Amino acid sequence: MITRLNLLLMLAVLVSGIYMVRSAYEARRLFTELDRSQSEARRLDADYQRLLADRQAQATNLRVEQVARERLKMRAITPAITFNPDAPAQVASGARGTGAAR
């Protein structure tokens, strides 16, 4: 009877030892994964800050005007190139001077 109790207790100690080793290994693995994730988060945050700075640099008025002129072939608006599609007759009659007599 005592031999069985000793064998049972030794088996319990062995199982608890294996469980503790496994728990320690799992804790180290999780800590390494956490550290890797935190490094990745810092890298992504740095990329995000860089992208915000790039976006702010690209959105300046001078940059928008430069892109509009070079890529989109746009030009500054003047009365000579303004066109009102709703009233082309008024523009034509106003250009002849008939509107000034009213």
TrEMBL record:
Keyword Cell inner membrane: yes
Primary subcellular site in the record, as a coarse category: membrane
GO cellular component, one term: plasma membrane
Matching InterPro entries: Cell_div_FtsL
Family, similarity comment: Belongs to the FtsL family.
Complexes and interactors: Part of a complex composed of FtsB, FtsL and FtsQ.
NCBIfam families in the cross-refs: ftsL_broad
PANTHER family: CELL DIVISION PROTEIN FTSL
HAMAP family noted in UniProt: FtsL
Protein name listed in UniProt: Cell division protein FtsL
Origin species: Roseateles depolymerans
